């Protein structure tokens, strides 16, 4: 089953929001990226947040917020219903037909309770298969999907909680025999838990909305691609963030900052005979993997700090119609080097919203360079709110 491990390594290093860095050295330092099953779950599906450097755990909710912070959906307009669709051609510099599609919807029931559902589908394009003797086995089209049900509830005007239940299916090399083992789709169940606190304040002589959000995503069962194969952790991730929206007569400026950390075991350093010489054994339970992820890096506290990434972004809404966005995402080079700038724009007209984002990297050879996201949302407001 080593080939599946290598495929997951490739996907984790390249498919998610990182640049392609194989295990080895970066500027003389050892790389040690975290490896998880279904890493497509870490790709930000929304074009709006994608244009803000992926900083969105504390920003105002929209139709795509179930994937960022479900709790914020509790404050969507009372009685409103929304549907959103995002399409992302992913890593087209490297793979011509890889893409992520995200469909989501919500319904605010009574001003306090919101329910939602979403589906994301990730296609990895065509892959040529070979056996252990380099004999061709044909062509496969690996794909993964996740289906969510979401619920959010507010406890007053300032605090809300939310969560999602998720079913994940990962079909990498289904039906292919590797090292004498028949492979199949990997399946798992997971949950997100989130919260948000917001408050109306005065800043710089004017009104503003300040908020703090937290989301722990993909807490779930391990995934295996055969009955006897190795089990892999899901990409459980902690995100903490804050945002402030300055409200003007004709515009609203939102500034956001998120920090994030994967809550899965860091791979230890092994000796040639397979013994651990630094770090901790990654074969542990899910709770032990989550809580142990803060002190298991073979490089000690310094390496743990390198596993913390951050993203920051801004959004300018002008006359409730035109939207401009920019952001920056940072990840340490030894943990994948997922550092890049983003730009975004959008247009709002009546119940419709159109958004796009563009990813800018410092190296033209980066497989994420020039990545685009396209989003469309329709938000139906109740008549009493739709009369203005």
TrEMBL record:
<feature type="signal peptide">
    <location>
        <begin position="1"/>
        <end position="23"/>
    </location>
</feature>
<feature type="domain" description="Type IX secretion system protein PorV">
    <location>
        <begin position="31"/>
        <end position="267"/>
    </location>
</feature>
<keyword id="KW-0732">Signal</keyword>
<dbReference type="InterPro" id="IPR045741">
    <property type="entry name" value="PorV"/>
</dbReference>
<protein>
    <recommendedName>
        <fullName>Type IX secretion system protein PorV domain-containing protein</fullName>
    </recommendedName>
</protein>
<dbReference type="Pfam" id="PF19572">
    <property type="entry name" value="PorV"/>
</dbReference>
<dbReference type="InterPro" id="IPR047799">
    <property type="entry name" value="T9SS_OM_PorV"/>
</dbReference>
């Amino acid at each position: 089953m080593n080939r599946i491990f290598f495929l997951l390594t490739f996907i984790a290093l390249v498919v998610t929001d990182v640049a392609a860095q194989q295990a080895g050295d970066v500027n003389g330092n050892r790389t040690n990226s975290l490896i998880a099953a279904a890493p497509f779950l870490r790709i930000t599906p929304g074009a709006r947040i994608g244009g803000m450097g992926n900083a969105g755990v504390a920003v105002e909710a929209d139709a795509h917020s179930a994937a960022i912070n479900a709790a914020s959906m509790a404050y969507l307009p009372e009685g409103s219903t929304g549907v959103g669709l995002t399409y992302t051609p992913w890593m087209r510099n490297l793979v011509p037909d890889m893409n992520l599609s995200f469909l989501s919807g919500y319904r605010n029931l009574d001003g306090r309770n919101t329910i939602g559902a979403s589906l994301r589908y990730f296609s990895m394009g065509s892959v040529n298969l070979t056996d252990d003797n380099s004999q061709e086995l044909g062509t496969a089209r690996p794909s993964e999907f996740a289906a969510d049900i979401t619920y959010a509830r507010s406890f007053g005007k300032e605090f809300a909680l939310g969560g999602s239940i998720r079913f994940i299916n990962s079909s990498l090399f289904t039906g292919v025999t590797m090292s004498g083992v028949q492979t199949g789709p990997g399946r798992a169940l997971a949950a997100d838990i989130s919260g948000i606190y917001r408050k109306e304040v005065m800043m710089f002589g004017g009104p503003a909305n300040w908020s703090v959000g937290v989301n722990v995503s993909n807490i779930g069962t391990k995934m295996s691609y055969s009955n006897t194969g190795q089990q892999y952790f899901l990409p459980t991730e902690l995100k903490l963030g804050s945002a402030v929206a300055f409200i003007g007569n004709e515009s609203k400026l939102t500034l956001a900052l998120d920090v994030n950390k994967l809550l899965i075991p860091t791979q230890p350093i092994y000796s040639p005979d397979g013994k651990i010489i630094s770090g901790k054994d990654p074969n542990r339970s899910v709770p032990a993997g989550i809580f142990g992820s803060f002190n298991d890096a073979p490089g000690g506290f310094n390496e743990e700090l390198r596993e913390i990434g951050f993203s920051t972004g801004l959004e300018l809404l002008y006359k409730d119609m035109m939207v401009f966005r920019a952001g920056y995402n940072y990840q340490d080079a030894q943990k994948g080097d997922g550092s890049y700038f983003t730009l975004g724009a959008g247009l709002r007209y009546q119940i419709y919203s159109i958004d796009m984002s563009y990813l800018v990297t410092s190296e033209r050879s980066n497989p994420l360079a020039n990545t685009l996201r396209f989003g469309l949302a329709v938000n139906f407001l109740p008549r009493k709110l739709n009369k203005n």
